[in-house]
Amino acid sequence: FNGADPDTVSLSADLAANPEHWIRKIAGVGCSLELLRTEEFYQPAPCLAALKDIGDLMALASLAYYPCRIQWGRFSNPTVWDWPQSGDFVEDQDANPFLSLCHSGLASRIAQRRLSLLILFVCAPAQVLAALTMARFIKKQRPGLHVALLGKHGLLAGAKDYGDSLLPENNPKALMDLVARLGGPGTPGDSAGPDFSGLPLEDYLAPAVVLPLGELAGSGHDLMPPKHLMAVLSEQERNFGAQGFLSKDERLTPAYMAEMTGEMAGEQPAFCIGLACALDTSAGTEEMAAAYKAGVRLIQWRDAGGQLESLTKLLWDVSQAGIWNHVVMPGGSESRLAQGLVGFMAANPNIAHSWIQLQPPTSCFANLVEQAEKASVAYTQVAELPGRPLWQGLNEPVYQLLYLNRHGIKKVMRWRVRDDGYSVYSLGQNITYYFVKPHELPPGYLDEICRMVEAGGSVGKKWVRYNLERAFLIGYVLEEGVIVGNSSLKHPRLEYVEAVSKQSGLDLTQCLERGYTSVRPEYRGMGIGTKLLEGLTARAGSKKVFSIISADNVATQKIAMRNQTKQVATFYSERLGKEIGVWIPAGMIEDSNSPLAPNA
Questions:
Q1: Is 186 or 16 the better-scoring residue by pLDDT?
Q2: Better-predicted residue by pLDDT, 589 or 118
Q3: 96 near 89, Cβ under 8 Å?
Q4: What are the beta bridge partners of residue 425?
């Protein structure tokens, strides 16, 4: 393994040093596989531990076929980049793990004499080398058996020598013509949906079967009416025990699913559904709520188009309906829409629950490179949260759909996986509030709070540290050793108070200013800002308190209103170029003679 990547070198060294450990892992993997089929699957820690065990053994298997890399749903070999190299690989018993699988699992199945056509479906780069290996093996074992490879042209452009036919992915006529030419029926059968009876669904690695939905064509290849789709789903549920479906047909939109609720006679469906759609504004708030009633729990958005404000409103509506937003962005896009959307998603993980950027593969044998969501650019300077979001740990749409259907989006989006790969904590579960004088802050905390305030972006940076060092009181929230929110009661600078008093008509010279509130994006929506302001106001003693909130800072205005704080004056700030409001707790607003009442 000279020159191998660090993970491979580390794994090989651990295997050499601890062979008994790996022997036990191999012997126990059956328990991990079985766990995924039980109710324990829905408990994050046992589920992730099982997935880690399986992943560890796939990494171990990769050593036997180095430099191949075998992963969950992925396979790659960095030495195979073009079609001539693929020919060498499929014949190499030492480098190709699929050859032994063909001998052990495929040979007996193709021995049936009545078999005249075998179709290999290829829908991702990770499947190409496996499909080519199977096609070559089948033609050697059964030269007279017609082998067709079906998939996108870009994946199979050089595969003509491996089989007898290459079929386009979205042309059912070409497939039916081939079937008819080989003596089969020239039209589809009477079944409302595909037949999965030949698959070992009893070995499905989940407690519930989730089936794919391909092109849902009715007569004339148009999208079938909602009534017919309901019949398809009901048949799949009845025949194969399906409890979930993942659609690949982009025409199956939330608006379409909303129509399907009319076919359910007011009953909640027994199945859940994940959609894959273009990100546009074709559905509104009511349709999203109806789509949830129709069983939609997850939408994978692609191909964003339109105005940024409209798209963010759509994502908000989807989230409010209880549906998970997963957005797939093309890597390297420089458009204003793409950059604006990425910025919005990074700052609002409670709305855009997960997103990735896909870098296109450099060849048909290379996997798409997924770049997982980044933290908000503004918050990259603060301490990182431990671990990663649960959805990255599951990393499988089927599992994500089942978790969302069982637990709901609020619980799933708050779960995080620690760095050990399987232990889990929930954001906001063990938070602690502190209210202290500046000199009582632990070492380094003032620096971090300054960075949090600057990351919030609603105030200038010039006086942040100066004001915090002289603050009356600082409130902050801690979880997992990380500051996740903060606010303060400041002694405002004299020249600042005089300027605000002059513009607002209020006498604020004896007041504390409540401000510098910042809550990490992952913790928004938990009431942290509200509780911080409640705690600070309760500790103000005889001091009066005011807040300065710009008209465009809607989030802070909502926090203020939840704290029974009212806007008592407004003025236009020439320096900031926008309307500014002065807010005061209702209990501190007195009669017209109060220094906090507007000046006559």
A1: 16
A2: 118
A3: yes
A4: 416
The beta-carbon contacts of 340-343 under 8 Å, at least 24 apart in sequence, are 340/308, 341/304, 341/308, 341/311, 341/312, 342/374, 343/376, 343/377
Report in angstroms the alpha-carbon separations of 485 from 59, 152, 192, 432, 528: 39, 49, 53, 10, 7
Q: How far is CA 77 from the centre of its chain?
A: 27
Average pLDDT over residues 326-355: 89
pLDDT digit string (tens) for 268-277? Answer: 888 999 999 9
How far are the Cα atoms of 256, 258, 263, 268, 282 from residue 252, in angstroms, in the given order?
Answer: 6, 10, 16, 19, 12
Q: E strand or H helix at 71, and its extent?
A: strand 69-71
| Tokens coding 171 | 């042309």
The residue extents of the domains of the chain are 106-184, 208-217+224-426, 432-588
| Contacting residues for 312 by C-beta, under 8 A, at least 6 apart | 341, 344, 348, 351
Percent of the chain at pLDDT above 70? 94
Dist CA 492 CA 504 (whole Å): 15
- Cα–Cα distance, 344 to 291 (Å, whole number): 24
Q: Please tell me the predicted confidence (pLDDT) of residue 592.
A: 43
Collapse the DSSP code of 476 into the 3-class scheme (helix H, G, I; strand E, B; otherwise coil) and give the result. strand
Q: For residue range 568-587, list pLDDT tens digits in order.
A: 999 988 877 889 899 998 88
pTM for the model: 0.89
**pLDDT at residue 595 is higher than 70:** no
Report the helix count and the strand count for the chain, using DSSP H and E: 21, 22
Q: How many CA atoms lie within 13 A of 449 on its CB side?
A: 29
Q: What are phi and psi of 128, to 5 degrees?
A: -65, -50
Q: Residue 600 above 60 pLDDT?
A: no
Check: CB of residue 299 under 8 Å from CB of residue 397.
Answer: no
Model confidence at 189: pLDDT above 70: no
Give the Å distances, CA to CA, from 295 to 105, 271, 278. 37, 6, 19
* CATH number attached to the domain at 432-588: 3.40.630.30
Q: Count of residues for the chain?
A: 600
